[in-house]
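Following up on my earlier thread - several people asked me to post the actual chain instead of describing it. Fair enough. Here it is, all 366 residues.
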Amino acid sequence: MTDHNPNKPLPRILVVDDSVVERNLFVHMVARWGYPVEFAASGQEAIQLVERDRFQLVLADWQMPGMQGTELCAALRQLDLGQYTYIILMSAQNDEEFLIKALDAGADDVLAKPVDGNELEARLQSAVRRIELQAQLARKTDELAHAHDVIAQDLRAVSGLQRSFLPEIQSPFQGLNYQWLSVPSKYVSGDHLQVFELQRDVYGFYLLDVSGHGIPAAVKSMQLVQMFADRSATSIVFEGRLGPDGQRLISRPRDVVARLNRLFQQTESDLSYFTMIYGVFNTVNRQVALCQAGHPSPLLLSVGQPAKVLGGGGYPVGLFDLDDFEDIELTLGNEDSLILYSDGVTEVLSASAEAFGEERLIEFVN
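Reply from S.P.:
Thanks for posting it. Predicted structure:
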């Protein structure tokens, strides 16, 4: 009879026709082809039965007293049935106007009366295929929604882990005050920042931004976090020898960035790179040395003076095979502030799609 999967039950059909003769004729034909079938004598009765029994296929006459077939279509489309209901309208009026009205009302197919049995059987087979495809789509949509929920839950866990590596809210270091704000565009991001002790009265700090978004950027970001936290003999923030006082020599920021650049050169399988600012601050003499590697320029705020832009940009890490990184050196006054930020600040868009920009940021901090 049909290419329908024999392991799946045929959809239940509701025949709607006010004519007893035609209604019985259609019920008899449909039942003979193996479909479970019931009938309704009016549009109002059909709506009640569909709401109650969730028929997947409705075969309805157009011209009925009280509620026409097009009105029945529109009413059925308003119901929240949790499944798709395929509607075939039948009419002795077989012209373009009827076709347009039927489709506009929500009918899936139209048949001209008198209905040919072979044609009706073929239309029902087509309807079965459509219904099965709709059911498959609904299942896939549910599976995707579940997968999305699982992924979102995992991402929230990763986000919590990533935030756990951020600095303490209140500075635990004597002579060093800092404040920070991190707002990822998604659950996780490639941006990260940290302030950490190198030696007594000497602290390192960095702000980095891995290219791209989401999990890949976050993974590389966390790899860098671990490298900066490493205090073994191969630590990137120390030299491989001791100073006159017996302590490990602290690497200059430009040397740290150069090492990272050698370690993270782009490959065919990994085209990512990152920008960063890494600095060292001595709280005793207030001296700062920092290296800017393709990152937005930091701002120096001094009392009674406008914000000063530091640095000229530099090269992103991993993009070019070179060691041409430079340090910016300055001495901070007791009331001076150093502001580091990522491009997420200057590139945020207004309602009119205009970027915030560096000039507005400087005006704001001033």
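The first helix runs from residue 20 to 32. That should answer part of your original question.
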